[in-house]
Amino acid sequence: MAYFPGLEGVVVKETEICHIDLENSKIYYRGYDLEELAERSTFEETAYLLLYGKLPTRGGLEQFKAVLRGNRAPPQHVTAVLQHLPKSAEPIDVLRTGVSAMAHGEDLRDRSPEAELARGVRIMAAMPYIVAAWHRIRTGQQPLSPDADSHAEYFLKALRGSDVSPLEARAMDVMLIIYAEHSMNNSAFTAVTVASTLSDMYAAVTAAIASLKGPLHGGANVDAALMIEEIGDEGNVEKWVDAALAAGRRIPGFGHRLYKRGPDPRLRVLRRLAKELAYAKGDTKYYAIAQRLEEYVTAKLAAKGIYPNTDLYAAVIFKYLGLPVDINLPTFAISRVAGWVAHVVEYRRKNRLIRPTEKYTGPIGLKYVPIEER
Ligand code: CMC
């Protein structure tokens, strides 16, 4: 029996959602070049594309945005749950609890792809509120549900309680588009695995959030931000990296299971956006550190197939957007939920229980010894 550690190279499903062209360093969502979507579309339009398989008409988009607006505040008991949590709880864990709590009180018997898709859209709609409400609750403020045209603007306003500039709203929108989908990553696979038992969308997304939390996956955007803060100045980059590598540590924001021959294609968009924000804010320190990290770590580790990934510049962009560092991670989830839901719905249309196997390497035939004789 073939064994693939980390399931590397194993095809688990056929898909029409995302194509990664390693040869030409391109990513396509439903056939559309992600760089063009990041430049010309909005998160709502891209999410619609991922979920429904085609770009919306103007009317279709307005309807979709109205559904999102109408479901931004989750059922009331969800806010009540948040209000009872210890203030030290990590935002990604609270988001996981909040999405899980959304399921309670809903009739979940209809598990058809259509019913699950509608649930997925409601979850997507409510996630910015849950993350922002938690940040406000833990800092002694009232949760807000402000008026806003876009998901990105709503999230930033609900989090900060103040106005958001058009550049900031657009930067967050681009981040949400860029993070929305990335083929069979660990959290998408987790969501699909859970859904393959015919469990429900709340369960699948809750599990996906649990997967995203890990520092080898989404958690890297928090670690990358902490690293940049710790480095503090571009002049300290080399010393910091040398010490980390000498201690056998991995550098957050570098390395990827797929991109072993060059950097992640999304880096082009994120590097540009980080630079634009840095100059607009008149503070290039974090951008300069990330740039120096990119150069230095690539020079040291490219021979091993290690290049920068999205989380390096995502950390810089979120810093310029004023996000508290631990909010970086649930912000990734607010976006990636589009991909999770799309994969769950696609898989459920041709569902087959996911049940791999393993290779047993332990002993057999041991004789049972009563406890008093051991
Ligand atoms: N810094 C230093 N060395 C590294 C790094 C890194 N970031 N990543 C991998 N390596 C080394 C690793 O130690 C191994 O070395 P050796 O052959 O000497 O033992 C070699 O490179 C191959 O590593 P691997 O573990 O086989 O690679 P993988 O494909 O299983 O791991 C990864 C991919 C993302 C888990 C890994 O690169 C990593 O831990 N990166 C840091 C965390 C990170 O940035 N994660 C975000 C990933 S992209 C966004 C997302 O998916 O959410």
From TrEMBL:
| InterPro entries, per the entry | 2-MeCitrate/Citrate_synth_II, Citrate_synth-like_lrg_a-sub, Citrate_synth-like_sm_a-sub, Citrate_synthase, Citrate_synthase_bac-typ, Citrate_synthase_sf
What high-level taxonomic lineage is stated for the organism?
Archaea, Thermoproteota, Thermoprotei, Thermoproteales, Thermoproteaceae
- Species in which this protein is naturally found: Pyrobaculum calidifontis (strain DSM 21063 / JCM 11548 / VA1)
Q: Which reaction does it catalyse?
A: oxaloacetate + acetyl-CoA + H2O = citrate + CoA + H(+)
- Put simply, this protein is called Citrate synthase
Its EC number(s): 2.3.3.16
Q: Name one Pfam family in it.
A: Citrate_synt
Q: Which family does it belong to?
A: Belongs to the citrate synthase family.
Q: Does the keyword Acyltransferase apply?
A: yes
Top enzyme class, one word, equals transferase
Query: Mind listing the UniProt keywords for this protein, alphabetically?
Result: Acyltransferase, Transferase, Tricarboxylic acid cycle
